[in-house]
Amino acid sequence: MAAENPVLYLQAIERNYRQGENLLNILRGAELAVWSGQLVALVAPSGAGKSTLLHIAGLLERPDGGEVYINTQPTSALSEFERTRIRRLEMGFIYQAHHLLPELSAVENVMLPQMIRGLGKTAARTRAAELLSYLGLKERLTHRPAELSGGEQQRVAIARAVANAPRILLADEPTGNLDLRTADRVFEALTQLVRASGLAAVIATHNLELAERMDRQVTLREGQVVELKPGQPHH
Ligand code: ADP
Ligand code: MG
Predict the structure, then answer these.
(1) Mutation test residue for ligand 1: of 13, 24, 172, the one with most atoms within 8 Å of CB
(2) Going by C-beta distance under 8 Å and a sequence separation of 6 or more, which residues neighbour residue 175?
(3) pLDDT at 235 over 60
(4) Do residues 180 and 102 lie in contact, with contact meaning Cβ atoms separated by under 8 Å?
(5) Dist CA 203 CA 191 (whole Å)
(6) Whose CA is nearest to atom 6 of ligand 1?
């Protein structure tokens, strides 16, 4: 595995925000490499920079220093057009709120990103139904978000995130709005899917019990990524 390149590599990432007179150094040389098939838990207190790190990894925000490599390709010198293309092809995002379109059914919400990418309606519907069934929502395909429970909504959001078969999944406290038991079930579905599809996943969470079940646990300390159980073989 050591010979294989990481799918995502954050190298010496710097990120500063200006707050009045002050410059907040949120990320100060953060390094993180994630390989295919790996689930990495990002566990750190609120305000530590988890969302910032995920936004930078997801090419939604540019760092002030350092480089983001996606499949060994450096991305900082790319145009917004190119970065958007990589984001569409290679990445899936899950947020704390599901952000599903309320007027669309579950299956339509999962079809949409596939059709934006150019897939035909029938093929998109087939894949959407397969994914939702895999996530235990076979009986909920035509329900609108308002007709689904919180856990079901978040499973639809997961299906939507992986609909275009990305290589990288970035999740920002995806179970943060759910009760513990529901969070557990959603998380189980998520991990199964990641392992089955060989995704590289970074999941920010406050739930230490869920974090323990991932392959690696990292935190942010003074703007740097720190491995919580160093020395453990990755994979
Ligand atoms: P976390 O996700 O770990 O809670 P964030 O990455 O959201 O942390 O934020 C890290 C720090 O950066 C916080 O102190 C936050 O207030 C600050 N911050 C985040 N985004 C901005 C921004 N756009 N402008 C100014 N400060 C920001
Ligand atoms: Mg956050």
Answers:
(1) 24
(2) 154, 182, 183, 186, 187, 205, 207, 210
(3) no
(4) no
(5) 10
(6) 49
Any atom of ligand 1 within 6 Å of the Cβ of 26? yes
93-97, 102-106, 142-146, 199-203: lowest mean pLDDT where? 93-97
Reduced to 3 states (helix: H, G, I; strand: E, B; else coil), residue 74 is strand
pLDDT band at residue 3 under the 50/70/90 scheme: low
- Cα of 46 to ligand 2 centre, how many Å? 7
Model confidence at 1: pLDDT above 70:
no
Q: What is the pLDDT of residue 172?
A: 95
Interval between CA 49 and ligand 1 midpoint (Å):
6
Ligand 1 pocket: which of 15, 17, 43 to mutate (most atoms <8 Å of CB)? 17
The DSSP line for 75-112 is -TTS-HHHHHHHHHHHEEEE-SS----TTS-HHHHHHH
CB distance 204 to 193 below 8 Å: no
Q: How far apart are CA 32 and CA 68, in angstroms?
A: 10
Is the shortest distance between the CB of 114 and ligand 1 below 6 Å? no
Ligand 1 and 205: CB distance under 6 A: no
Residue 215's nearest CA partner among 6, 42, 11, 57 is: 42
pLDDT, tens only, 74-88? 999 999 999 999 998
DSSP β-bridge partners for residue 10? 32, 68
Neighbours of 123 (CB within 10 A): 12
